[in-house]
Amino acid sequence: MRKLFILIFFLFIFISCRTITLEKRLEPQAQEFLDITQYIITDSEKKIFLELPPWEREKFIEDFWQRRDPFPQTAVNEFKDLYLKRIETANKLFSKGRKGYLTDRGRIYVLFGPPDEVIRSEGGQYIDPFADARTVQLPTREGSKPIETWIYRNILAGLQERIYVRLDFADVDGTGDYKLITDLREAVPGTVSTILNPNLTLLHELNKEEFFRKTLKEDKPLFDFNYQFRKEKSKEGNLTIHLEFPIKNIYLQEEKDSLKAELRINIEILDFNNNAIWEFRKDYPFSVPKNDVSEGRIKSWIVDIPVSKPLPSGNYNVYIISVNIFGNEEVKKLLPLKI
Question: Where are the domains of the chain?
């Protein structure tokens, strides 16, 4: 168990470092998009966005909002307008040394909208998180700070049972930037704890799921692949490009007892001046037994592509285009490589 924990920990660190590296390469417009959508973008969408070539990101942003449009037949995207309006309002109401939507109150406001009721308690008073904020006599506690209580009566109303939630925010530092002090594991019944930032992360994940369920039109995961650059010496070169396509992300055609697809893979390795120094293109038809997929024995289609040219030490970009010919799906990645 300890070894498994250590492995997961270092895997998390590796993925986090890769994500941070890719985020550093973002242009201002792309970074702004990630900042304001951080509460609703899925992990798979963020991964694809970070790995896209810069010239493809504008199209991704258009598709991102389109997937969330509850009434695509109309000219107005109600979800986008509501979400951006909440960002704007949060900035007006809660900006204290940073943008309002990044504060705890701003984040809750963006995710759930204005509360049904707000109760404010000035300095020297403390609200018991288990008491009814509307009727209880507030006990005093030496050194306590001003507290603001938000009450939601129909939070996550899309679930079978509507949940009544009260959230307490305290001006801990006396700056007017109120911090969430309610433990959401107790405030929202039936939820489980999370590893990182259990309070805001939990509410974030709950609401991301709700937004996703309500507005995202396609249940099928986005076409994507994972990659590794394996620096392995061979007779022809010193790099192998390892690509792994999750089966669940691929549109597959049924043929008797099999599922088939054909993937076209194009790769260019670009030098510091963005000149292509190595190119590759190949179509890969493949089929897998239907039962093996449905029963989880086959989860990915994997290909290793050796680079048939030695690469001197230095920094490169690897431009990969993968097309699912049967499903009319395409994904592009521009990835940093250091030899």
Answer: 94-219, 226-338
